[in-house]
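Supplementary Data S3. Sequence and structure tokens for construct A.
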Amino acid sequence: RPQGRAAPLAARGGATARPAPASGEPSPAAARRKRGYKETRELEQLPLRIEALEQQVATLTGQMADPAFYQRDGAAITAHHQAIATAQAELDAAYARWSELESD
């Protein structure tokens, strides 16, 4: 053996090199991380937020059941429909975030 050169690790009886994980797959350590303080607090508060949003959607939808609701002008009805759509979108986002935090 030439001076200054070490024998390969496998030839010396050491461990062999492990193949690198595929580039598209996250490492197990990266996939499983601990939830931070802010995320834990957010997860604790989400059920109350979801309940409030569900109540808001129910109230707005219930107001539409009143026969006098459609006696109002068109702009008010459109604004009411937009408020329901906004509340429903927030509710959907809250459920998605809750699911995301629960899976971590």
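Construct B, processed identically:
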Amino acid sequence: MSYLTYIGEQTVKWSALGEEALVALGAVVVVAAAGMIIIGTSRAVAARREGHGGVATLSGVSLVLAGTLICLAAVVLGFIAMTTKSS
């Protein structure tokens, strides 16, 4: 084993770096889900205001439901992560 490889293994905890990257990806997903809720709400309201019912309103409502489910799943995963003892 070379000296540089040894230094790299000692200074960088690759598993911790991977966990941080996973948490950052989760944060991006939650922000995107919140954006889906906002866009879906505005589409559904605009469709109802313009008199377009049915499919136009349903597409907005489906975006809201999908975004809400993703955000709720993130909250549940957060509670599980907080209550689970890590070793």
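Residues 63 and 76 are 20 Å apart (CA to CA). The helical segments are 3-11, 14-49, 55-83.
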